[in-house]
Design goal:
Helix content: over 70%
Strand content: under 5%
Oligomer: single chain
Structural class: mainly alpha
Distance between the termini: 45 Å
CATH class: Mainly Alpha
Number of helices: 11
Radius of gyration: 20 Å
Number of domains: 1
CATH topology: MetI-like fold
CATH superfamily: MetI-like
């Protein structure tokens, strides 16, 4: 218990003095996970909506792939992204491996199926006749899709929280594609693993608490927006 209390004191000490290294790691965590979430939002909502609103051969198989992707192990994503970005890989000429950009790519791959799956379920929950009603009022197909997305905004906000939560807490893929390089590609999760391996449990606990507080603040803001939008 003394170790945990030491970690808590260390966490507040690091936050109070605005330790440059911890501040840099925290800001990079926000940049990487925030960027990955935004990218996955674009692809996830687009694909989820398209699958939900259209009938095509192999649709059930596509839904099964999306649902499988929601539980894809991050280390598997890290492995395939590493192979793609390896110097002899298909995208090796870009020289992105062991950079924050590679971490954004890996985290976007992790978050996209999560957001896609929740979007798909949210759009399927809408009344089927709603589409016909919107079109009968003279709306174009694009306007119909935008209105349906607006109707499903509450679960879509939950999708954002789930996607962000899935990547901000991810460690396996980030280490594999980012390399955990000090001052360059080290984020809160990878720094926590490193400090734990060194036996610096007080620092590891402090970083973990900062990560939890950081995730809580982001999700608290999104929750406030979601609850404000809740039907009365």
């Amino acid at each position: 218990m003394g170790l945990i209390f030491d970690g808590i004191k260390q966490a507040f000490h690091l936050m109070f003095i605005l330790d440059p290294e911890v501040l840099g790691i925290t800001l990079l965590s926000l940049k990487v996970s925030g960027s990955a979430t935004l990218i996955s939002l674009f692809f996830g909502i687009s694909v989820g909506t398209a699958v939900a609103l259209n009938q095509f051969p192999g649709r059930r198989f596509a839904v099964s792939l999306i649902n499988t992707g929601m539980s894809m192990p991050p280390v598997v994503v890290g492995l395939f992204v590493t192979i793609m970005l390896w110097r002899n890989g298909p995208m090796g000429f870009l020289e992105l491996l062991y950079t924050p950009t590679a971490m954004i790519i890996a985290q976007a791959v992790i978050a996209t199926p999560i957001i896609t799956g929740i979007t798909l379920a949210a759009m399927q929950q809408l009344p089927q006749n709603l589409r016909l009603q919107i079109l009968s009022l003279g709306a174009t197909r694009l306007q119909m899709v935008l209105l349906l997305v607006r109707e499903a905004r509450l679960p879509l906000l939950a999708a954002i929280m789930a996607g962000f939560g899935g990547v901000i807490s991810e460690v396996g893929a980030s280490i594999m594609v980012g390399g955990n390089i000090k001052g360059y590609s080290r984020v809160l999760t990878t720094a926590t693993v490193m400090e734990t391996g060194r036996g610096n449990f007080d620092v590891a606990i402090a970083l973990s608490i900062i990560l939890l507080l950081f995730a809580f603040l982001v999700n608290a803001v999104l929750t406030m927006v979601q609850q404000r939008e809740r039907p009365k």
